[in-house]
Design brief:
It is a single chain. Strands 1-8-7-6-5-4-3-2 form an eight-stranded parallel beta sheet. The chain is built from eight helices and eight strands, in the order βαβαβαβαββαβαβαα. It is globular, with a radius of gyration of 16 Å. With 218 residues, the protein is an alpha/beta fold. Strand 2, helix 2 and strand 3 form a beta-alpha-beta unit. Bound molecules: D-xylitol-5-phosphate (DX5) and zinc ion. D-xylitol-5-phosphate binds next to strand 2, strand 8 and helix 7.
């Protein structure tokens, strides 16, 4: 499978959101990564439903919505209605993760589970067969432009083993601090999806940078 590139809208220029959405449409990116932060689960607030709907209005690629919020169950249907194609909840935010995942899938979205840098891959053992995506945080969630945590490589290796052992179809998404240097080693370690915020939006030519990430060959 060729890898997937998901630019993170968190680093877009919100005063020119339509322009940035069109830029991603015109690039070789595969998904829009959409970060939702509530100021409780993470120490930052990003944006809510009206903005997700506005992105959906112009986006020509799937919305990969990453919920960094407490009590995500309350909003699963609303995010579906707002246009999420893939909905990812944090393992650390869910008491009944299996139920949450089944709910997401039952209304037609793909289900993802995100894990923080301190959360062991072993905790995914009994859910990995039910999910479409693991969002492995390679920074502590809350902000764009942070430094990549190197232990992520060990976690990708463990997760790849788990996915194989359980015959799961889950993709491994790496979120945080992805750049043009670590993209290749991450893909070599087993990543399938690379999220990139700062790397794309701080580039003088974002379309070209997305193209460079997409054309990496293993
Ligand atoms: C961090 C978010 C990330 C963020 C990535 O909490 O979940 O998706 O936008 O941004 P960069 O690529 O700049 O680290
Ligand atoms: Zn994210």
């Amino acid at each position: 499978m060729q890898h997937i590139i998901a630019p993170s809208i968190l680093s877009a220029d919100f005063a020119n959101l339509q322009r940035d959405v069109e830029m991603i449409n015109s690039s070789n990116a595969d998904w829009f990564h959409v970060d939702i932060m509530d100021g409780v689960f993470v120490p930052n607030i990003s944006f809510g439903f009206p903005v997700v709907k506005a992105i959906k209005k112009y986006a020509k690629k799937p919305l990969d919505v990453h919920l960094m919020i407490v009590e995500p169950d309350k909003y699963i249907q609303t995010f579906c209605d707002a246009g999420a194609d893939i909905l990812t909840v944090h393992l650390e935010a869910c008491n009944h993760l299996h139920r949450t995942v089944q709910h997401i899938k039952s209304i037609g979205m793909q289900a993802g589970v995100a894990i923080n840098p301190h959360t062991s891959v072993d905790l995914l053992k009994d859910i990995i067969s039910d999910i479409d995506l693991v969002c492995m945080m390679s920074v502590n969630p809350g902000f764009g432009g942070q430094k990549f945590i190197e232990n992520t490589y060990n976690k990708i290796i463990s997760l790849t083993e788990l996915i194989k052992a359980k015959n799961s179809k889950a993709k491994i998404e790496i979120d945080g601090g992805v750049d043009l240097k670590n993209a290749l080693p991450l893909l070599k370690a087993g990543a399938n999806v690379l999220v990139a915020g700062n790397t794309v939006f701080s580039s003088s030519n974002p379309v070209q940078t997305i193209g460079e990430l997409k054309s990496i060959e293993l």
